[in-house]
Amino acid sequence: MPLLQYQSQAVAKPYFIAAIGLFVGQILFGLIMGLQYVVGDFLFPAIPFNIARMVHTNLLIVWLLFGFMGAAYYLVPEESETELHSPLLAHLMFWVFLIAGVLTVVGYLSVSYERLTEIGGNNLLATMGREFLEQPTYTKIGIVIVALAFLYNIGMTVLKGRKTAITIILLTGLIGLAFFFLFAFYNPANLVKDKFYWWWVVHLWVEGVWELIMAAILGFVLIKITGVDREVIEKWLYVIITLALITGLVGTGHHYYWIGAPGYWQWWGGVFSALEPLPFFAMTIFCFNMVNRRRRDHPNKAATLWALGTAVMAFLGAGVWGFLHTLAPINYYTHGTQLTAAHGHMAFYGAYVMVVLTIISYAMPRLRGREVNPERAQVLEMWSFWLMTVSMVFITLFLTAAGIVQSWLQRIIPNPQSFMAVQDQLNIFYWLRELAGLVFLVGLIVYLYSFFAQNKPQTVEASEAQPVTG
Amino acid sequence: MSAFFTKSMARNIFYGGTLFSVLLFLALTLHTTWALPKRDHRENLTEQVVRGKHLWETRNCIGCHTLLGEGAYFAPELGNVYPRRGADFIKVWIKAQPTKVPGRRQMPQFNFTDQQLDDLVAFLKWTSEINTENWPPNIQG
């Protein structure tokens, strides 16, 4: 069987490369921000904190979207058993999206944000200046165009080919992603309404439709590396996404406690979001079950590790760390503290970063003309897995400690202290977080290097280890 | 999962469960829409407040501060800065930035006019009067 069952799967490759490139940028700006937490005037006024944060979070979103699109272009032809509807359109949209993304980041870094709102179309339609939705209005329109072209391309491919649960779930998730982004264009003057519907983009993405995309990608990779019967895997996927949407949709209410919405959201949001760990727990059981029941030992050990790691870390980051502060009586004290940042970091890394790295780990060797990477490259990739994952665990633990102390000093004790007075006492946690961030960077460098690593010339030891070379 | 629980059953539960959840969420949203006018005191949403929100957005304040607990965690909560500090302090503070104290977190200078400062304060005052179920727990935000 050829490495690529369908020629057009090759369009995924530039998407994955762009994703990794932007990932590097994201981490560098994360390190800048981490340092600004303790050395407040670092790079000021050249790169104020708010600018670094926009770059950090926007690059994350954009590179994950590149990853999702690459994943769709790779897996949909294979699942649908037909060539992609239009590889040309996929290539074209790649460049449109990349240029729009890079121009936006250049805009963040080269002109003041106020100036960017003037040249970015904010006077036509005010959509800018809201967390995660800082992109110029023109960029947002570009995102919609790219998303529609992408959905058309994937949708036509699914329609003309075999329909599997994986493609149906993926397509449902992608349509949801495009649909809920439209709320980014709704910015009412009433702050309460603004915040209420802002969450329809943010929460319904990451705790809603993105989970469908994640489940579909994981399901595809697990079918490939375990050889377990498709019927079993797809049945699990439906159970997982049912749990995800039943808990996640009404679970949006855990963001409505303190922004002006009625008090009953404390119950609706609390009860449903307290169940949000369930889909992630099911995903963990599912992944380990499938790997244990595998019918073959796939030579791509790194991809298997990423898949299992995704399941565990998504459960910890999105499930457990979300649960920690989702109930209203706790959230009353922790809302908008470093605990939120701790949860955000491990949830995004565990669920979405890792699932994209899983599909890249499985697909990229094939896109580069070999079934799997050389043994040494895989070992390095697995090292990078552990370096990045363990350092993210520590980043999360340090921020959690900071968040608990912050809540205590600023909100619980009888004579609460001011924000900045409290921040000064958290420096030790911030320094440790920065240190863990540097280890993450080392892991990322090892990851990048693993793409170029070759096996060393054969020695006795190496031949005993029986390297797998496709 | 045993054999009697088939993929098509799982799929049907997915469609049914999702439809139910969407309808429940929309029903709650509809009720919230009815209930909001009493809570967000929109009758006080003057042109000045709207201009203030526009300034809040076009200077990307949310990139460092939280507002009702949402935003970045680098600088103080501003949802209750109006009762905490008062209008005059807020205006003087914004004008005095950046402090340039070595090693301390810095806020940019936005060169606001007096009218813009008043607009921003009006927005922060309006925000502080939203019914937030008594959040934040105390004046420190």
Write the layout of secondary structure elements.
The complex is a heterodimer of chains A (470) and B (141).
Chain A: H1 12-38, H2 49-80, H3 87-110, H4 113-119, H5 137-160, H6 165-181, H7 191-226, H8 230-251, H9 265-274, H10 277-292, H11 301-324, H12 328-334, H13 338-367, H14 375-412, H15 419-424, H16 427-450, H17 460-464
Helix pairs in contact in A: 1-2, 1-16, 2-3, 2-5, 2-13, 3-5, 5-6, 6-7, 7-8, 7-10, 7-13, 8-9, 8-10, 10-11, 11-13, 11-14, 13-14, 14-16
Chain B: H1 7-40, H2 47-58, E1 66-67, E2 70-71, H3 81-85, H4 87-96, H5 114-128
Antiparallel strand pairs in B: 1-2
Provide structural commentary.
The complex is a heterodimer of chains A (470) and B (141). With 470 residues, chain A is mainly α. Chain A has a domain at 244-452: Cytochrome c oxidase-like, subunit I domain (Cytochrome C Oxidase, Chain A), CATH 1.20.210. Chain A contains 17 helices and no strands. Helix content of chain A is 74%, strand content 0%. Chain A has helices spanning 12-38, 49-80, 87-110, 113-119, 137-160, 165-181, 191-226, 230-251, 265-274, 277-292, 301-324, 328-334, 338-367, 375-412, 419-424, 427-450, 460-464. Chain B has two domains: 1-40; 43-141, Orthogonal Bundle (Cytochrome Bc1 Complex, Chain D, domain 2), CATH 1.10.760. Chain B has a two-stranded antiparallel ribbon with strand order 1-2. In chain B, a hairpin with a 2-residue loop joins strand 1 (66-67) and strand 2 (70-71). In chain B, helix 4 (87-96) crosses helix 5 (114-128). The longest helix of chain B has 34 residues, at 7-40. Chain B is elongated, with a radius of gyration of 22 Å. The model of chain B has no long low-confidence stretch (mean pLDDT 97). Chains A and B meet through helix 1, helix 2, helix 4, helix 7 and helix 8 of A and helix 1, helix 2, strand 1 and strand 2 of B.
